[in-house]
């Protein structure tokens, strides 16, 4: 059995409805079932089928940015949601305000607010959860309803489209048709986990990219020169150029390292009755564990001049450690978001400067 099977989240996620999502649920058959579902659609070979759609959404983002750069944050969030919902549900996000994006961000905001350790007294005094008049219970009921809405409403859309015979290809449609019966109840949570894992990380990484380009314009110029040399000045890069743009890929890695997507990992507790051991260090049963990704990716023993944004650290014959091993999570609960092509496109077309 994997070491990670013994570590449970410290958060009282059952209060707000997140306890069934991958990365939040206890390791066991439900988690294994969701991993089986995701493996059929999120493996490196299968994900290539969705490259054209990912590129299409990135092109839409560039057009929006061209016409209204002052709405950068809105464009980033909209694009991040669209790149997750299309392959997952076969749903085309509407321009402007979109019901699904609004619903999803409401649920994710509730998670972000409630997941801070110690946010509520009940985190320190568990007996409070038995008090019927506790105020956090009323708030939790609202948040739980939002999370259920986030997981279940898109499923209704997919089923309706399939019944009409007009549904577009999607992960959920494939699972509803092909998944084992015992895994089908997990589909809403596996699908929601894709959105939660991809959309927020994409927003964070793309925002960091723009900040970095403002502070280090010389890096932007070097990347644009590489793209002009490899792709040419009259076309946009695509996934097929990925292996031919090492400096741009290094920018992507440095974005992940410089401002980690999740600086502090979700708190875990060693839930097994026996102690654990890691690299000669004993971890007593019941120990609380928090992975400090920020420190790991700013460790001066591993990364030279870690405060500086320097993509060149990942080039040459002796590159520094790949931040992907840390930034997307640890062990069996890792998630992945396809960001590299979006960064390639933005480098090739944008001249990121402060407003004059």
From TrEMBL:
Q: Does the keyword Iron apply?
A: yes
Q: Which UniProt keywords apply?
A: Heme, Iron, Metal-binding, Monooxygenase, Oxidoreductase
What Pfam family does this protein match (any one)? p450
Keyword hit for Iron: yes
Which InterPro entries has this protein been placed in? Cyt_P450 (IPR001128), Cyt_P450_E_grp-I (IPR002401), Cyt_P450_sf (IPR036396), Cytochrome_P450_fung (IPR050364)
Q: Which cofactor does it need?
A: heme
In which pathway is this protein known to take part? Secondary metabolite biosynthesis
Recorded GO terms, molecular function? heme binding; iron ion binding; monooxygenase activity; oxidoreductase activity, acting on paired donors, with incorporation or reduction of molecular oxygen
State the family it belongs to: Belongs to the cytochrome P450 family.
Q: How is this protein named in the record?
A: O-methylsterigmatocystin oxidoreductase
């Amino acid at each position: 059995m994997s070491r990670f099977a013994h570590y449970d989240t410290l958060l009282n996620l059952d209060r707000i409805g997140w306890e069934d999502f991958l990365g939040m649920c206890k390791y066991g058959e439900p988690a294994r079932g969701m991993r089986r579902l995701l493996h059929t659609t999120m493996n490196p070979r299968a994900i290539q089928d969705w490259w054209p759609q990912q590129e299409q959404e990135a092109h839409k983002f560039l057009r929006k940015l061209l016409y209204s750069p002052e709405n950068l944050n809105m464009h980033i969030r909209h694009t991040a949601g669209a790149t997750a919902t299309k392959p997952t549900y076969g749903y085309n996000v509407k321009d402007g305000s979109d019901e699904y994006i609004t619903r999803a961000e409401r649920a994710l905001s509730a998670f972000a607010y409630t997941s801070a350790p110690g946010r509520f007294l009940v985190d320190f005094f568990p007996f409070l959860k038995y008090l019927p008049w506790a105020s956090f219970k009323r708030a939790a009921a609202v948040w739980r309803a939002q999370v259920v809405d986030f997981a279940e409403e898109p499923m209704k859309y997919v089923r309706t489209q399939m019944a009409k015979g007009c549904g577009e290809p999607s992960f959920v449609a494939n699972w509803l048709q092909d998944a084992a019966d015992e895994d089908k109840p997990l589909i809403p949570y596996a699908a929601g986990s894709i959105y939660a894992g991809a959309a927020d990380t994409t927003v964070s990484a793309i925002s960091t990219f723009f900040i970095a380009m403002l502070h280090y314009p010389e890096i932007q110029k070097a990347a644009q020169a590489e793209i002009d040399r490899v792709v040419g000045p009259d076309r946009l890069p695509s996934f097929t150029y990925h292996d031919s743009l090492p400096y741009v890929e290094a920018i992507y890695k440095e974005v992940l390292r410089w401002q980690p997507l999740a600086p502090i990992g979700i708190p875990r507790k060693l839930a097994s009755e026996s102690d654990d051991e890691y690299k000669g260090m004993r971890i007593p049963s019941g120990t609380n564990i928090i992975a400090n990704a920020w420190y790991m990716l700013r460790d001066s023993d591993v990364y030279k001049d870690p405060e500086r944004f320097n993509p060149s650290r990942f080039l040459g014959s002796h590159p520094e450690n790949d931040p992907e091993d840390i930034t997307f999570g640890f062990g069996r609960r890792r998630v992945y978001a396809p960001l590299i092509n979006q960064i390639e496109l933005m480098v090739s077309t944008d001249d990121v400067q402060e407003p004059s």
